[in-house]
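Table S7 (text form). Paired inputs.
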Amino acid sequence: MSSEPGRRVVVTGATGHVGTSLVRLLSEDPEVGAVLGLARRLPDWSPPKTDWAAVDLSTERPHPVKEFEGAAAVVHLAWTLRPTHDPAVTWRTNVLGSIRVFQAVAAAGVPTLVHGSSVGAYSPGPKGHTADESWPTHGWPGAAYCREKAYLERVLDTFEREHPEIRVVRMRPAFLVRREPARAPRRTHGVRLRPGAPQPRPDLLPFLPEVRGLRVQVLHPDDAAEAYRLAVHRQVHGAYNLAADPPVDSELLSAMFGARPVRLPRTAARTAVAAAWGLRLLPASPQLFDAVLRLPLMDCTRAHTELGWYPRHTATEVLEEFLLGLRRDEETEAEPESAWWRTAG
């Protein structure tokens, strides 16, 4: 681990789920001298050693070279999942904006770039066993999120060849689960709920749908942030899978909910997702649902051995925290803290 005093780290997307956790960790890190958080809107929160700058990567403004100058590392987390009905908008922010970030890193002479990729970059893969970082990253072509993450993997392939002096790390976290603050619209699993509408009661569900292939991994944003912090300091490069155990499937959820699993055909589940998405009740598109059914389960051995990273929260604990939040919102009848299933980024 580097012992360079006063290292300056820049974080894009610093007010997002992982960004917020990472800024907090870096502000408490004695090896970091200063943190600069970049976001579209500046937050009220001001942790130690941290400054903020307003940067909107969706615009054709100049590359953020000035913000990156003198930085020891740039951690690129800026990403938007909306509007899912207009992929041209997300492409402009996520892909073109990311390319501007990469170009600015090179122009400013930043020695380390840590990029927030995702499990969504992977090609369809196994569900019965895990795949390591060598698994192809061509994404699922039907889903905009996967196309964008996979495209940036190819961009970074070229970037690394053209800039061998820059240490590039690609983080590929599983789905992130976190409760959001009460200021956000009331949502549960991405579904809009009217103010005053009753919260879901997991303990009252008689059964859960079981869809073939619906076996995924999740991760707490705090654990993802710790992996990014380690990557800033350790002289590592390449890709790292990040996920918590155990994988989430109908068996695990049925045990948590005390509900009986009932087999639901893929076509019926997809039809329901497509209908909810078409009505703008669900932010996840049916194409992303197709991708989720095909994503591989990730092997995280490399992160364990090279980064020394292990998640503090199990997948079960992450989901229990989520469900506890729903129950507390219902019991207090206060404006709820909404929760999201989030893809990485």
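Next pair, protein 2 of 2.
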Amino acid sequence: MMLFNDCFRGINILLTGHTGFKGSWLALWLRQLGANVTGIALPPDTQPAHWDLLQLSLNSHFADINNRQDIAAVMQQAAPELVIHFAAQPLVRASYEDPVATWQTNVMGTVNVLEACRHQPSVKAIVAITTDKVYENAERGEHFTESDPLGGHDPYSASKAACELVVQSYRRSFFSKQNVLVASARAGNVIGGGDWARDRLVPDIIRAMHADSPLMIRHPQAIRPWQHVLDSLSGYLCVAQHLLMGEADKARAWNFGPDQRDNKTVADVLVQMKTHWPELIWSEVPPPHVHEAHCLMLDSRAAQTQLQWQPVWNFAQTAQHTAQWYQQFYQHNNIISAQQLDFYIRCAQQAGLVWASH
């Protein structure tokens, strides 16, 4: 099969944050696509960790993106044509606990990566991954488009909005003169197998069930754009393909969210997961005295019309494949990431998506 017009085969790609949840899934996919992948990240901070379980063969470096010299050295060694920047402090509540480290990693870490790219002549394209939380959210229940004002209440959201400004500044100040195309990508609330991060809904479900205790839920009516990790990654790869093809008009910010019907509450996710885990129970607890957005939804029409991207799995399918991954892991010690990726690609081909054409 020829995915993404076979544009990743044989090219050098630098992937920051490859040991994280989303980064490890993308490393798996890029290896399947035939890319030469170099990863740079901190060691996994959970046990188990999806990265450790995959046992991928690639050039992996454990380093901190806050260390400019380390980033520059790996960049020079890897000589990438494409850089995909995931590495970040990705948790809202952790950003309240350590705002300085959050700002340092998410803003200056991104500066370090882009600065290394600026001095590496092999680089042709960069995709910086931010978040759906970069928008100034007045809680009016609107679907955010890429042109909406950036903002953020908590240190994580605000630092990622600042990251968007860093990307925009480097694009305008440096990369436009070097013919390097730079895009940013904003996905929804991503779920899928292999995530054990704290303060995320699905890993919290897993921990509660294994502790045989009720899950404590802070905001059951909070609305989020839930999507499978592979749907977000297909969006990132779509925009990367267009950048590598030299399409300068695609060097911009992009939303990659679920179908609008799949914006669901936390309670909806729990009810759906209970169909796969009947033993799941939960209780509502008073929320902590920190701000968390009530409603967050993305408008992805630009990606659908200009990149011919769209999500492959709906909400029910996303929940089903997520539950299946953990059930196979805990009941049979099976790692089914590669099988799920293959099935996802078959579903995309059956849906006639351009990036998955034969």
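The first strand starts at residue 12 and ends at 16.
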